[in-house]
Amino acid sequence: MQPKSLKNRLKEGPVLLDGAMGSLLMDMGLHSGQPPEEWSIKYPERIGKAHQLYHKAGSDILQTNTFGASHYRLKECGIAEHHDLVNQKAVEICREYGGDSLVSGDIGPSGLLIEPLGPAKPIELKEAFIRQAEVLEESGVDLFSVETMIDIEEAVLAVEAIRQVSNKSIVANMTYAKTDNGYFTVMGNPLSDCVNKLTDAGADIMGTNCNLDSVELRGLAEEILTLTQYPVSIKPNAGQPILDGSTVHYGQTAEQFVNGMVEIYKMGINILGGCCGSTPAYIKRLSEELKKL
């Protein structure tokens, strides 16, 4: 089944992303500290099942299981020699199990701080992102996602790397904290600065994912709409994690999460999904509520 382009889907109404992947994989047996990316090789059917659940819930875009599949993250896990295979398999699985959902090549942060704060050299980081983007592009993704970035310098390197090898759409999501003075990344990058630099780097969809919930992000949604004419993507957490013995759950119920997301959609944000704590049930409920509008 040939998926429609992102541009055509946006013309038809809101576009839904997927939700959290880690919690689903943990339910299937992923242990704490085990790299999810390795499962694309070891247990492809489990990764496929997760994609399938989100597709059935209504996700128009599915992100490949490659968040931590750049060279530096795989090196940390001890599987850097499988870099190309991990990325290739992730795209194949997403395409096989995802129906007509668009496949987005997902790229996360390296986990390193850039010099002088840390050991990472910008040119080497960019080379790693270029290699991952090349494999994802050659494997046939429909678009790219850069997400959970806390340093605008690293996010720009990732976007520039993708743009060097592809002209497909790039969704660039930073992770922000809410302060009395506005929204800032952990590294102190303000929202306006991130939007401007990501635009200059070549991103054509931008927004945020992780950390804040769907109520806390309403202020960011309102502000970012004044900063860009491009489509905006919002993927909140389902609240903050709460440890109950050995079990982690999140502070927002599906109803609370969706109520916040509906308000964000009404503001004019039409690319919507979930991050930590969200499940296919959250996305399904969001899909159902948006269809009523």
Tell me what the structure shows:
The chain is an alpha/beta fold and 293 residues long. The protein contains twelve helices and twelve strands. The strands form three sheets. Strands 1-12-9-8-5-4-3-2 form an eight-stranded parallel β-sheet. A two-stranded antiparallel ribbon has the order 6-7. A two-stranded antiparallel ribbon has the order 10-11. The two termini are 28 Å apart. The mean pLDDT is 96.
What structural category arises from helix and sheet content? alpha/beta
CATH topology: TIM Barrel
Quaternary status of these chains?
single chain
Contiguous helical run count: 12
Radius of gyration: 18 Å
Major beta sheet, strand line-up: 1-12-9-8-5-4-3-2
What is the beta-strand fraction?
Answer: 15-25%
The CATH class assignment is: Alpha Beta
Taking the alpha carbons of the first and last residues, their distance comes to: 28 Å
Q: Could you name the ranges where pLDDT drops below 50 across 5 or more consecutive residues?
A: none
How many beta-strand segments?
12
Key words describing this protein structure:
293 residues; alpha/beta; TIM Barrel; eight-stranded parallel beta sheet; 12 helices; globular
